[in-house]
Amino acid sequence: MAGEQLASIGGRRLRITNLDKVLYPETGTTKGEVIDYYTRVGPTMIPHVIGRPVTRKRWPDGVGTAQHPGQSFFAKDLEPGAPSWVHRLPIPHSGGPKDYPLVGDVPTLVYLAQVASLELHVPQWRFTASGERGDADRLVLDLDPGPGTGLAECAEVARWAREILGHMGLDPFPVTSGSKGIQLYSALPPGQTSEQASALAHELARAIEADHPDLVVSSMKKSVRDGRVLIDWSQNNGAKTTIAPYSLRGRAHPNVAAPRTWDELDDADLRQLSFEEVLARIDDIGDPLSALGFHAGGRESDDGPLAAYISKRTAGKTPEPVPSDPAAATVDPSDLPRFVIQEHHATALHWDFRLEHDGVLVSWAVPRGVPPTPRRNSLAIMTEDHPMDYASFEGTIPAGEYGGGSVTIWDDGRFELEKWRDDEVIATLEGRPGGPLGRVRLALIRTKGAGEKSQWLLHRMKTDAAGRPQPDGEVVEASPQADGRTPAAEDEPSADGPAEDARPEPVPDLPESAPEMPVDELLAQAPPLAWPPAPADLRPMLSTTATPEWAETAARSWTGAAWAEAKWDGIRAVGVWDGESLRLWARSGNESTAKYPEISGAALALGSEPVILDGELVALDERGRPSFPLLQTRMNLARAGDVAREAKRTPVTYYLFDVLAAAGRDVTRLPLTARRSILEHVARGLPETFVVPPVFDDVREALETSRRFDLEGVVVKDPASTYRRGIRSDSWLKVKLTRTQEVVIAGIRPGQGSRASTFASLLLGIPGPDGLQYAGRVGTGFSESTLRMLQDRLEPLRTDGTTLVGVPRADARDALWVRPELVGEVEFAEFTPGGILRHSRWRGLRPDKSPSEVVRES
Question: Required co-factor (predicted)?
C-alpha cells in the first residue's frame, strides 16, 4: 500500500498516496487509518461542518511524539492542486481573497485527509445561498482547564452553564474536545450576528465567573488560570474557528472532538475518546449532537428535497422555520407519521394540507379545505415540500414576503398510510381530541401535471379501511381575519401576495387585580422624592426562589388575600420619567434607553412630575407568548440603524408590576396594595406597548394558568410588603414551573468511579398500550444516601429479563434488569416525540403509587 492508488470514492476519482505512513508514532496510526476514519465518520460529521469555511491544521510528516512533536501549519487557502470538484468559497483578507474548502461530501473529507489535514476547524456561521457570510447559528463555550484542573472540573462548569442556557431556551450539547477540555454548543435563533453571539457568550462567562470565582475565569490572561477553568467565549467571533465535532486532534494520541451525552459528563471516569471508540459509539448510539446538525436540504445541490422551500424564504425576514436553523426537528421512525392542516389567510384564504413523508412535509394548498362528505371533492394544488418543523408553525408572515398572511393550525395529529404513489395517496388521519377533523380516511388523486403546482383531488372516502361507513364531517369554516371579515374560500390559493394585517394572539386574559384605592390620599402620605435619583435608588427589589408549597404556605401566613403575578420571561428594567422623557435602566445599573425606542420614545402621558416604574421588557412570539430567545436579538444591539430595524421585526412590551415614585413622591414605603393602585392610576392612557398585568388571589390558580399558557412561572408577593431597593426579600417568592412525571423503575445501569458500588442511572418506563414503554434514564438528583437506599431496594428485585418495550440497544447493552414494582417521580423539561423524558432529574420514590396507576402526564 506504500505507492499511489487511484480510488473511486462517492463517484469521485482521487489519487491517494503513502497509506502506510505513520502519522501518530505513539500509537502507530497510519495515514490509511486516518482516511478510513474520515470515510466512515463522514456522514455523521458533515451535518456539523456543511456550509462552513474549513481552516485546516496539517501535519505532512505526522504529529511526532510528546518529546519531539511534528511540524504543523494552518492552511486556509485551498491548494492549487486540489481537485476541481472540491467546493470552495472566497473570504476577503488583507492580502486578497482566500478560497476556503467547504465539506459537503465524503470525497472532500478524504481529500483533506490525503494531504494530512488532521484537524478541521470551522466558525459558528455558514455561508448564505449567495456565498456571503451568514449570521451566527451556533453559540460555543470552550471550557479550557488551567493547571491543577481537568475534565471533572470542566464537567462541573458545564453543568452550571447548562442550567443558565436551558433557562434561556438555548439547551447546550457537550463535546469533549479531544485535547484537554469540553465545548458546549447551543443553537441560536435566526438573525444573530457574530458580534451579538460573542457578546452573549462573554456575558454568560462573566455571570458564571461571578457565581463561582474559585473555579471559573473568563479572562484570557494565563496568570489567573491556575486551578481554574477558562470559559473561552471569544470563539464566537466571526473571524475565529473551533475544532469541528468529530475532527481528529493532532496530539500524541489520535483522539477526537467527540459529542457526548450529559449522563456521560456525570461519570467520575470521564476522559477523551479515541477515533476507534468514536466509530464504535456511532454504531451503538448514533450522534448525540444530531439535533444541532444541519443537512443541506437543497443548499448544496439543486435537487435537495427542500431546495424550493429555502429558495423562497430568508431566515430573519419570516417567522417560518428555515432549515438553516441548526436546531432542526428530528423524526422518530417508531411513531406514526404526522400531518398538519393549517388555515392560511394570504391573498385568498386556503388550507395547507401537509403529510410527513421521507423526512419532509409533502404539501398541498386546498382552497375549500377538507371535504365534509364523500359527495364533494376539493381541489388540491401541490406546493413545495416543507421542513418537519413547519408542523407546529403558527404566526404571521409579513406582507411582501412569500406566503404573506396569518397561519394557524386548523388540526393536526398522526396518520396511518395505506398507499403512497406518485399519483395517489390514501391515508387515515386522526386529529386532536375534540378537533374539527376527527378520524377520517382521505385520498389524494393527481389529475393534472407533475410535481409542484400539479393538481389533485382531495376525496373523503365513503368507508374506512375496514369497510365501515364514514360519518360526514363538519363543514370547514374560516376563522375571522384581523378586520373581522371571513374571506371567500372559492378563490385559487395564492402564496405570494400581500397579506391582511394580522396581530399575534395576545396572552389570554387573567383574573382581575386588587381593587382600587384612593390615589390622592396615598400620594399625600408619601415623602417627596429625592431628585435626581442616585444609582442605588434605581436598584430593583429582588425575589427569592421558592417551591410551590413554600409559596402557598407563605401566602396563607401573610395579612390579606394572596397575591400572585405571572413571571414574564424577559429582562428587568426600571423606567425613570423626568417629566419629559423616559430613560430605562437595567438591573446591572447600565442604561438601556437607546435599545428600546418603542418604549423610551413613545408619547407618554405621565405628567410633569417624576415617575419611576419597575417592570419587565418582553418580546412575544407568534403565539403572543414571552420568548427570551427573541429578546436576545435586541439585547446586544448598539448602532441606531440596527436597533431601528430590529425594533420593527421584534418589538418589545414593557410589563409594569410596580412603581417606586409618582407625582414626585417616593412611594416605596407604602404597602404593595397601595403601590398597585398608584401604578394602575399612573398607567392609564399609556400606549399599548405598556401593560399592567392582572394579579391572582389564588397561588395554585396562578401556577395552573401560567403552566397552561407556557409562562415562566409566578411571583408570589406579600400584599403588605414595602419596596426594598436592591434587596432580595422573602416577601417576594418566585416559583418557576417544573414538570413532573411518575415512572416505573425497570432497570439500572452499573456505576463507575465514585458510583461503582451503586448505579449510574435508572431505566424508566411508563405503562402504554403495548406494555411498559421505555421513557429514558435518570442519573442526576441523587444524594449519596439516596443512591444507597435505592440500591438496597432494587437489589432483591433483580431479574434476568425485562418487559420494558423500546429500549435502545445502547441502554440495554449493560443494563441490570429489575422487576417493575417500584414507582418514582422525576422532574423534566419535556417529552421527545418518541416519548423520552428530556433533562430528567430524580425527585423521589412514590410508595403511595403502584405501577398500574402510573400514566403519562400531558
Answer: Mn(2+)
